[in-house]
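Quiz preparation item.
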């Protein structure tokens, strides 16, 4: 059952202190939704709550902020319990909590990989398990999972990030089939590279992967709301022509897409190595 009117709807948003989560929360609250912000960053969460309230002072919705570590099963269950107790229902869950770290697989530690999977994938899993009882009782609800174009492509130097986002994609596909006919819907979002704090923390990896940041959080948030209204299963946002072209090639010929990505990556590595050698020789002179 499509959620076509956000006024009075109850939305839980993880990663709500910044980036796409904050932008989505702001957009929903401006339309009269009751918004529950969740994030591990308590100061950022409180600042986000204040900002959203100031942005739409006329909104009739409730605005709650609950510190939550999405890797903790008990904390996510408590988040959904508090939401149900306070607001009476859960109509929409948007899983924006995530991290992005890059680098060659040779030096990417097992603990970093586990952290990535725990936040990006298990955080989504915990939200589904904890919100499903309320949605099943209502016989209605909608999940929005944040994957990435990296959940449809193989991006060198972002192998761990890709793995976590492909996991979200596979989980969503299986879950849609499992929940068919229940009134509970899922939109999976595959944005290109968005101007968020996470992106700026990984500028070296972005340079290696030749990634362009062409999306703003508010753009993605607007598209998410339209996708929910239209009960859209796949929301892919790839304004970069190179990424859009590679996505199309990957869909039709994955082997070719992987070879193209690999050749491009190693060409960039060689170019960067040449630049470093020139710089080193210049210093010696």
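Solution:
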């Amino acid at each position: 059952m499509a959620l076509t009117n956000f006024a009075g709807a109850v939305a839980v948003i993880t990663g709500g202190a910044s980036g796409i989560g904050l932008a989505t929360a702001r957009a929903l609250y401006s339309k009269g939704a009751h918004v529950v912000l969740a994030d591990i960053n308590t100061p950022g969460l409180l600042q986000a709550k204040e900002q959203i309230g100031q942005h739409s002072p006329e909104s009739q919705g409730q605005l709650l902020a609950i510190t939550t570590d999405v890797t903790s099963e008990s904390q996510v269950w408590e988040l959904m319990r508090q939401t149900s107790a306070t607001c009476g229902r859960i109509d929409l869950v948007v899983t924006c909590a995530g991290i992005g770290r890059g680098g060659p697989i040779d030096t990417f530690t097992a603990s970093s990989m586990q952290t990535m999977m725990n936040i990006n994938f298990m955080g989504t899993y915990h939200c589904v398990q904890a919100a499903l009882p309320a949605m099943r009782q209502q016989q209605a609800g909608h999940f929005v999972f944040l994957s990435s174009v990296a959940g449809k492509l193989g991006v060198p130097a972002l192998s761990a990030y890709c793995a976590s986002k492909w996991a979200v994609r596979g989980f969503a596909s299986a879950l849609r089939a499992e929940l068919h006919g229940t009134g509970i819907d899922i939109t999976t979002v595959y944005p290109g590279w968005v101007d968020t704090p996470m992106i700026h923390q990984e500028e070296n990896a972005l340079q290696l992967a030749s990634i362009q940041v062409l999306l703003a959080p508010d753009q993605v948030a607007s598209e998410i709301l339209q996708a929910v209204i239209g009960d859209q299963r796949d929301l892919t946002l790839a304004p970069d022509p190179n990424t859009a072209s590679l996505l199309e090639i990957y869909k039709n010929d994955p082997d070719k897409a992987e070879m193209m990505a690999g050749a491009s990556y190693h060409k960039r590595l060689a170019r960067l190595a040449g630049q470093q050698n020139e710089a080193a020789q210049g210093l010696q002179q």
